[in-house]
Write a structure and sequence with these properties.
The protein is built from one helix and 28 strands. With about 280 residues, the chain is mainly beta.
């Protein structure tokens, strides 16, 4: 049985939490995709007998995986750890968090950045969203960014931010192309350890695709959305002060997509002492 509530209350050693209560393929892996979580645990809450569905040469590398339902490993796909079935659902580690009010933040409207220049953005509310293309390099100053409208889309170019939290209130998060995506979360404050969060009423797909170099440390939280990774994209979490954790409604990996969480020492997720959002 899972000690989900006890683990979540203190953060525990969760690395990947898939929240969907009944979907087939809530965690789906196709092709040569890999999930590498050498020091943390996978939890899948779906009660479906094929809650985890893998094909091809997909590899799920973690010491243990706890399922409410079951798993199907087809072809040469494999799981390297200990599989625990028919357990209790794992509690959402961020269930207590409220999403932010943007009323007091400066509204920067919408941006379309498609030049070869370098642009630096300030924390605030981007009510119409942002699109980045061409050879643009966009730097995010430290702080909290809320995106409405079409969300945040990068089809080429680079997105770089240290000590930032990105919140997708409306639209989609799409990170693609062959540029760089280098993001890390705040090491202090109410959003400590959280780099990307998507509103609970936003079920738009969160997509990471193409050949982009992605190094995203910290927690990614998309409780109502599918995190979809295609191509040779990767997310890597290894910040010593961050609780490296991915929590999504569903997770799908195709092609040679790789997600790496918590590489190195076993560390518990460090949840904020106060509610994350005001």
């Amino acid at each position: 049985m899972l000690a989900g509530a006890a683990v979540a209350a203190g953060g525990g050693n969760s690395g990947l939490v898939v929240l969907s209560p009944g979907a087939q393929g809530a965690l789906e892996m196709v092709g040569n995709s890999r999930v590498e979580i050498p020091a943390k645990i996978v939890y899948v809450n779906s009660s479906h007998q094929q809650a985890v569905d893998t094909t091809g040469s997909a590899v799920l590398d973690a010491p243990a995986m706890y399922l409410v339902g079951g798993a199907r490993f087809n072809g040469q796909s494999q799981f390297t750890g200990t599989l625990h079935k028919s357990g209790a659902a794992f509690a959402d580690p961020f269930a207590h968090m409220l999403f932010p009010r943007h009323d007091s933040m400066e509204n920067f409207g919408g941006w379309s950045i498609n030049s070869n220049s370098t642009v630096t953005l300030s924390p605030g509310y981007y009510s119409q969203g942002i699109s980045i293309s061409g050879q643009a390099t966009v730097h995010l100053d430290p702080g909290v960014y809320i995106f409405g409208g079409s969300g945040l889309k990068l089809t080429s170019g680079s997105l770089i931010g240290e000590e930032v939290t990105i919140i997708i209130q409306g639209g989609e998060l799409e990170l693609a192309g062959n540029g760089q995506v280098l993001l890390s979360p705040p090491s202090a404050g109410l959003t400590k350890g959280v780099v990307i969060a998507q509103s609970r009423d936003n079920d738009s797909q969160m997509s990471m695709a193409g050949g982009a170099e992605m190094h995203i440390t910290g927690a990614i939280y998309a409780p109502s959305a599918q995190l979809r990774m295609v191509g040779n994209s990767e997310v890597e979490g290894k910040g010593p002060l961050m609780g490296d954790l991915v929590v999504a409604d569903m997770v799908q990996l195709r092609g040679t997509a790789t997600i790496r969480i918590g590489r190195g020492e076993l560390k518990a997720i460090s949840l904020p002492a106060l509610p994350l959002f005001d």
